[in-house]
Every structure is written in C-alpha cells, then in structure tokens.
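Q: Joint fold for the lines below.
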Amino acid sequence: MSELDGKLASSSQQTVARLVKALPEETPSMLWRSTLNEALLAQSTRAQRKRLIWRFARPTVGLSLACVLAVAVFVLPVSRHSQAGLRDTPPAVSSPDSLAAGLFQIHRDDVRAVDLAGTGLNPIEATDEQSKAPATSQDDYSESDLDL
Amino acid sequence: MRFVALALVLLGGLVSAGAQTGARHLQFDDGPAHNKSQVPGLLWQAIHSAHHAHYSGEKTVQFLHNGKSFSHEELVYRDGVKTRIEFPAGSHFAGQVIVEDANGRKHYFPDRNEVVVLPPRREESLDRLLRLVDRAKQGKVGLAVASGQRIAGLLTSQVVVSDESGNVTQRIYIEPKSGVVLKRELFEAGGSRWGAFEYSQVDLNPPPFDPSLFQFERRGVRTVTPKDLLRKLVVGKEFVGVSLPPSSGYLLEESRLDKIDGTPVLIESYVKKGETKEGSKLSVFEISGTVEPSQFARFSRNDFHAASIQKDGKTYVVVGSLGLDSLNQLAQSLN
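A: Joint structure:
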C-alpha cells in the first residue's frame, strides 16, 4: 500500500494529474441535449408508427388474400358460368319468316314422301350418307346366318 | 282363379282385336264412312289391294332432294300387310333388309350390324289414300280416271289427282284387276315432277311366300329404336331432344338435324299408331332461339297447322294436320 502511495506521489504521476486538472471542464449544452432528445423522440415515434402500421396491415393483407382466394374459387366460376349462360341463351331467330316457312315445307315434304316411298326407303333414308355404306365382307351373311 | 282371369283377359283381347279388324274391313270394303260414288272405283280397288295384294317385283324410286336428283331400286315382296324389301347387288343399299308387318318394321343395316325397329309404314301410306278420298268428298281435291300406260308389261289405268284449281298433283297408275299401284308420280306446285316410283318388273301371281321371308332374326345384331338414335343425335349438340310421350299415341319414326336459313333445327318425325283420317304424320321441331307463335300462325293453311311453346331459350314447334287445340296439347306434353 505504501508502495502504491509512493508510486502515485511520483513526479510523473503528479504531472499527469496536473495536466488532467488543467483540462477545461466540458458540460453538454442544453441545445445539444434538446436536439438529442428530439432525435430520440422522432426515432421512437417512427418505430411506434411502423409497429402500428404493421399491426393493422398484417390482418388487412391476410384478409385481402383470403378475399382474393374466395373470389377466385367461388365467385369467378359462377360469374363465368352465368356469362356463358347468357352467351348460350340464344337470341330471337334472325329470320323467323323464312324459318317458319321452312318448317312447313319440311313437314309437307315428309308427308308426300309417304306417298312416294310407301313401305320402302323414304327420301331421308335414301339420301342419308350413313345408311349408304355398302356391306363389308365381314358383314356378309348367308341365309343360314339369318335363320331364314 | 288366376287361370280364369288370364283366360278372360285373353278372350277380351281377342274380341277387341276382332272388333278392330272388322271395323277396318267395314271401312275399306264397304266404305260406310265414304260415298263411293264420288271416288273412282279404281282408287277403291287400290285401297282394297293394300290389304290383300300378293306380288313381287322390282321398282325404281326417283325424287328431288335439295336440288339433286336421287334414284334407287328396290326388290319388293308383298303379302297383304306383310312386306319385305331388299336392294339389288351394286346398290348403295345392298345388304340392307326391311321387313314389315302390321305390328312393326325392322330395318337391318349390315355395316353397323344394327336393326332399327320402327313403326309400320303401310298404314301410313294407306292413311294417305284414305285422306285423299276424304278430301275428294269435301271437294278439296279432284279425282279423275284416265287411260294409263303399259308398265312392267301390264296395262294400267290412272287416277289423276288435282287441287281445287285443277292443277295436277299426282298420277297414280293402277293395274285394274289386282288394284296394285305400279307407278306413281308426284308434282310440284309449278307442275314439275318431284318424285316417282315405277315397277320395271312385277309378278302379280307369285307362288306362296315362305312366312319366314317376312321375319328378320339374326343373332348378335344390336337392336336400336328411333329414341336411341335421337339420344345419339343430340349428344354434344345444342339440342335437348325432347319428345312426345307414348301416351300421345304418336310414335317417333326418325330424327335428323338440318339448317334453315342458317338456323340449326332438330327435326323429329312421328306417326300415329293405328289408322286415322286426320293424318297420321306429325313433325316436332326444336329451334335454338325464340320465335313468336304468330310467325307460325301466318303459314297455317287448311292442310297443316302449327303450335309452339318456348322453354329455356328454345322454341318447340309441332306441325301437323290436326286442329290447333290438339296440336297445342301435344306441344304442352313434350318432355
């Protein structure tokens, strides 16, 4: 202990102590403190606002995503369907006069076809391409096949 | 007790069938419903022949369709109400067979290995002759007899059918002894020939036909009905394919798609079961779009009328020679 006191009382230590004591005393100015406080306050308000925004933004974003999903899954198909339905709903026939005349003509032709065909092929059957295909060898048959 | 009930039911059925057959023969043979004096005996002979004719022959059928002329040959075997039709080798229809009796008609398509079961057509064509008689009685058509032509080596007489204004609409060439119609010509309003059939050879006294000639039974053949064909026709199309219920008394005969002035139309052709003086043929049209009923009323004439309903953006039209009330009822019954 005495050795420590001795070292502190040394001339070099006394010089350093004098130099430190000679340094001007700097006390932070009120202006600087006020600026610092304002800066700190501003910083904390921004963080608070950010937190507040996130608090509302997160559920809002979630809700919006859910809505978009719901619209995509439920609403759009229905709307597309109803639009398609509207498109499929045929409008009034453009030339009803000639259509009506055409229907009567078809019926008249079908009726007189009976006079012509009797029990044979009627003109519709005789002009039907499907019914004109000739028998293939596979389809050929004999009287015995027919059980005649 | 069960056997007694069954016997009574069978007896009832026989009595009813007998009564119907009797009524038919009364109507055609004695003709109480018609005044024979207004109708040439030759035509009565043809009507009578529809029940009793026994012949075989080959005939050529020609007609115009959509501006094109079509022609084909048929080999015909006829025994009263039974008919068999075949087609000569080389024909588009070679291999097809049609057999028909009073109960139905079978049309065999070898390429599809199908038999289409249809209502009989003999009654339908007979109805047309009877309707001609009725219209003559009412003065709506004129019937006259003229000398005919030699057809298939046989002399014929002709019944000339004309409208109220005297325009010739048909010429029916009949072999007078048998009453068999050997040639028939149908004319357009302007006088041009629309269609005709004519026998190139005929045997009016062939040996008795084997009854099996008028049957068609072939194992492994798919049987389809006009209703099956209708269902197949509308698959993937804009049409619903509604039809008249069996309770209407009308049977679906055929269905097809067509376009009238660019408008797609589903056409269904029906025939009345049994004989009727009102005309046995009926057409049902399904149209994608709406057409006011007044449009059809404008084209209704004495011979044909139309009734329509609208449902789900479609118009259904029933055209026939029935009265408007009956047609309206039929239109309402479409399902």
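Q: Anything notable?
A: Residues 55 and 204 of chain B are 5 Å apart (CA to CA). The longest strand of chain B covers residues 54-65.
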